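Worked example 2:
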Amino acid sequence: MNQRSVVYTILPIARDFVYSLAGLTPAAPFRTLTLTAIMLGGSLVPAPAAPPASETEKSNPQADGNPPKPPVTPLGKDDKPPAAPPVATAEKQIAQALKLPGLVINQEKSYVDVEASICLVDGPLEVIACTKDTKEHESIVVIAARPVHIHAALLLLGAKNGNPAMRRALDKEQTRWIDVPPRGDLIEVFLEFKDIEGKLVERPISDFITRSEEPDGQPGTAQTGEAAAPAKFPNSFIFAGSQLADPGPENGQRQYLADQSGDVISISTFGDELLCLPDINSQENGALTWGIDPTHMPKLGTKVTLRLRIKKKN
């Protein structure tokens, strides 16, 4: 399947996600919405139509102030038509279209590159990545993109989101509840940055994380009711996809919760994260079992690329 076919296949999935944000139904004509405008500016306004030409413009083509065009001379029998200007290939057009603020989509290699910077080089972790002015004190990187844009980018690459861990009522009276585990496609997480020699290197996120220690110097352990933490931090996260809240009073749009909380890639379970671990993990300070391993960590403030690659299925 070529790139164009992949995009045309995935677009309906992204379309449905956009409609959910806007509170629209899939019956609305998608071609009247500009996906670029929706994802770039967060605006869910139909693309404006070009204004009709005025009577003056119709009668006087140069009314716009542009110089008159030179007359066209018909080609003779032996004349050759001028060479056509180079036309952008479909792949280049697709590559240009699959860009959003703070991120770039590499469709050929099935990953999303997100602009980020190192915001913590020591201490316990609750999240891997957060948005600005949220949880930089307990996150490895702070990103420039909006979580909802990352969600849309992963959909365009063919990933399927599920849900974060949550509790769901079994009856209308809400007397019985069930714990719903997180689900979704697996996304591998990496950091790309320049080493001391100025060469770009890519390392799995697990290279920067180690088990936290208790006050007695022993590795931290999971609390009762939680899954035991593995010896090595995993490199894959579940594409949970956060949650959509009810429309806000300002613009009537549904709110993407990770945009508000900043929980982009979480270790602890908050219930609104974009990417999460497969188990439920406490967010209490005493229960944080993972911290930063500074061995390969770039300096504080270093610009890095947060790479999200769809994990290949066996």
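Confidence is low (pLDDT under 50) at residues 1-10, 24-51, 215-219, 221-226. The longest strand covers residues 186-194.
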